[in-house]
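Course assignment 3, question 2. Fill in each field.
Student: A.L.
Task: Predict the tertiary structure for the chain below.
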Amino acid sequence: MALTDTTTAIGAVSELLKNRLASGSGIGTVLIGRPESARGGSGNRFNLFLYRVSFDGHMRNVPLDNGQAPPLWVVLHYLLTAFDDGDDSDSKAAHELLGRGVVALQELNFIAPAATDVALFSNPEPLKLTFDEADADLLSKIMQGPDEKYRLSAAFQIRPVMLAVQGAPEYAPLVQTIGPPGAQGVVVLPSLGPQLLSADPERFQAGQQLELLGTDLAGYDEILIGTTSFPSTPTARGGRATTVPLGNPIAAGAYPVCVARTLASGHKRTSNAVLGRLAPIVIGAAKIAPLHATGTLRDGSFRVTGSQLGGPNASAFAALYRDGAAKLLLEPQPGGTATLLTFTVSLKQALEKGDYTVIVRVNGEQATASPVLDWT
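Answer field:
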């Protein structure tokens, strides 16, 4: 893209924020302008107000290439105001809506513009979103005048936004592919690729956030746990995070975990892998029917419920633990599912009546919870 396209970058940032805020919060109406201009609308809505443009002092003298005049690096300061269906920005519903908007903005963190966004794609740095203090003095100065009203708002800034100076040299289009003209070749990317350093935590459960830390992770919108793909979001530490939903049938076990993105060619680019250990979740253990008694011994069946239990192809077992020792190790019966395993204690394996702690392992990973089974 031509550097002269960056002259419209300020408006492009506002449009980008509008679209990302709408998709991240689920509120489709996002207006741009002074807060008072959003009055008179219908339905829940947000208003974005660009109230200040400042120059980035840290990058004032940073050129794109040595020997060239530096471009203008600006910082854009915005106010986010929420309006409820009743046109009020100070109601309980508006406050709840403002919280949703702030969370949606926080999830943006580092913004990597799409290649189709010609005004921002040449920006050599990802756009960084940080929150500012929106105290009473700031809001009072901005919202003054006969038509203005003090409205609770959240303040944030976007930096660094590049504006190419007049007469800046133009560069040849970026090389995107290698191959015959008109053919889709190998995509050329501006780094050697993402490098993962660790998973935090290494051992996790469904419903718990897994964060991957490393370098060059911006724009990688997938996390692969084994071969299963989950959407990823940026984190405050520059990593990528995901959460395995509680209802997902993926089995417990130790997996190679990496970040991934799909290139324009349709190929998927991945990072190196780190170890992630997904633990099974055990909710309870209970007898299926009355046990068969032989004196003080009991035989019969019991059922373990939970999630990530693996199903029929998993390497699973349950240990019945009592008086400081495992009394019996059992494999599940055929027909198990990701949420239900059935175990049978045969007549030859009959156990003394009493309470037993049930310890479950699936593919080498032990469940955190060990319920007590009434074996009487």
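Instructor remarks: Helices lie at 9-25, 92-108, 136-142. Residues 27 and 191 are 36 Å apart (CA to CA).
Grade: pending
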